[in-house]
Amino acid sequence: xxxxxxxxxxxxxxxxxxxxxxxxxxxxxxxxxxxxxxxxxxxxxxxxxxxxxxxxxxxxxxxxxxxxxxxxxxxxxxxxxxxxxxxxxxxxxxxxxxxxxxxxxxxxxxxxxxxxxxxxxxxxxxxxxxxxxxxxxxxxxxxxxxxxxxxxxxxxxxxxxxxxxxxxxxxxxxxxxxxxxxxxxxxxxxxxxxxxxxxxxxxxxxxxxxxxxxxxxxxxxxxxxxxxxxxxxxxx
Length: 236
Known about the structure:
With about 240 residues, this protein is an alpha+beta fold. The protein has a single domain, classed as Gamma-glutamyl cyclotransferase-like (Hypothetical upf0131 protein ytfp, Roll), CATH 3.10.490.10. The protein is built from seven helices and nine strands; from the N terminus they run αβαβαββαβββαββαα. The chain has a three-stranded antiparallel sheet. A two-stranded antiparallel sheet has the order 1-5. α2 packs across α4 and α5 packs across α7. The radius of gyration is 17 Å and the shape is globular. The two termini are about 25 Å apart.
């Protein structure tokens, strides 16, 4: 890893990631709003039932734009590069005090936000164990309610075909929506934040390197990995 398409070499490397890695115990549920609470089995079941009731007929697909590309944690029998028009990949989900951030160094996660376009991956889930796979997906993506990036169906394009796919898009009305940060402000966060699942630098490195392997060059993320590498180098 580290080599992008057309011979591009990432500045952010596994060595940078190792510099900011810390062993952190899971602090447990971290409330981010006065009405936030941990999701329960009943919550997960309700979300899965809602997804299945609204799912278009035919094959069931999930559009992955971030960590679901390189760590999907569900079964799939087909993977295709896909384009979502009217949506963009953005570090706009804040603030993470548990998974890849802490109270001292809050994390900022990727979500789909309105505007622009986003290239990612569309996975087709096998019909035989669809409900079980959706439970795995929802339990991974939804640790609390209400969710700041609830699941929804959008249209994506793959190989000239228009397909419906489930994805996770930011709710701008949520108190966790962070908009308007410039690249330098985002890089400041990504170069320092770390939680029990790892660092934001690791998250960025894995996302950019896997996108490049797929032939997807995200210019915004490419600039961010350069800025994050610079900051880690300055830390010594």
